[in-house]
Amino acid sequence: MLRKYERMAYELLRPGQVRAIRNRRPIAYIPAGSLEWHSFQNPLGCDALKAHAVCCEAALRHGGVVLPPFYQGLLGMDNWGAPGWKGYTLGYNREKTFEEAIYGICLALKAAGWKVAVGVTGHDVPEQRGALACAIKRSGIAGFAMMEGDLHKWNRRLPYHMDHAGAWETSCMMYACPGKVDLAEFRRHRKTKGDDLDIRGPEGIGGRDPDKYASAALGKRIIEKMGDQIGRKARGLL
Questions:
Q1: pLDDT tier at 227 (50, 70, 90 boundaries)?
Q2: Contact at 8 Å (CB) between 35 and 69?
Q3: Number of structural domains, the chain?
Q4: 172, part of any domain
Q5: pLDDT digits (tens, 9 = 90+) for 116-149
Q6: What's the confidence (pLDDT) of residue 124?
Q7: Within 10 A of 70 (CB to CB), how many other CB atoms are there?
Q8: Beta carbons of 27 and 115 less than 8 angstroms apart
Q9: CB atoms inside a 10 Å sphere around CB 225
């Protein structure tokens, strides 16, 4: 976690600090993702870590607090990207399990006096966004849910597109979690060439070649743009 995000992170704050944030701008962000293969160079928690950074940027710019990342995402595959790889997610047809967990969180937020709940998933599947949205709506708290792909559509000037372990996700990780991306590991294992890598290939990648196009500077641009956009939308609900 970047040091500048520590003052937005719920788990690192003291009670008085949380109370002050709630009194000033009662927005709570719920970042969600998955634990799954993101090629050789990225950490397994890439999706949730990206979402957490986006939420922290939103809170930094527009107020609010960010809950700890929810890593147990939906639609995990038994073998993702490499033979024999086993990931850890809730699996197929577990939308209700995910929804109920978020629903409980939203009820607690509402009871504690928070006025807006925002769910952001870095695991870009509609089922996960839908479960977040349903949980927020059922709880009766104001709010909304977004995928990174949705956020990208708000600003066409952002380079590339949301991908899977390509230049977009790898750049975000290079910025949000410095030192946790190892492109040398990717180079040792890669078996394809060119700008576009097949998501079905041995690397389990979709998108632009991260070795050629990924950078912390690009990740900073992506996360700051998305955070600003989602924070503005959240603040508008107060």
A1: very high
A2: no
A3: 1
A4: no
A5: 999 999 988 888 999 999 999 999 999 999 998 7
A6: 87
A7: 23
A8: yes
A9: 18
Question: Which tokens hold the place of 130?
Answer: 């839908």
Q: Give me the domain span that covers residue 143.
A: 3-156+222-235
How far apart are alpha carbons 119 and 142 in whole angstroms? Answer: 11
CATH of the domain at 69: 3.40.50.10310
- Across 44-53, 64-73, 157-166, least confident range: 157-166
What band does 37 get if pLDDT is binned at 50, 70 and 90? confident
Q: Which two tokens stand for residue 177?
A: 């979690």
- Whether residue 183 lies inside any domain: the answer is no
List Cβ<8 Å contacts ≥24 apart for 18-25: 18/65, 21/63, 21/64, 21/65, 22/65, 22/112, 22/113, 22/114, 24/63, 25/62, 25/63, 25/64, 25/235, 25/238
Task: Give the whole-angstrom CA distance, residue 35 versus residue 119.
Answer: 17
Residue 97 resides in a domain: yes
One-letter amino acid for residue 81 of the chain: G
At residue 155, the pLDDT reads 54
Q: What is the pLDDT of residue 160?
A: 64
pLDDT at 195: 46
pLDDT for the residue 88: 66
Residue 145 in domain: yes
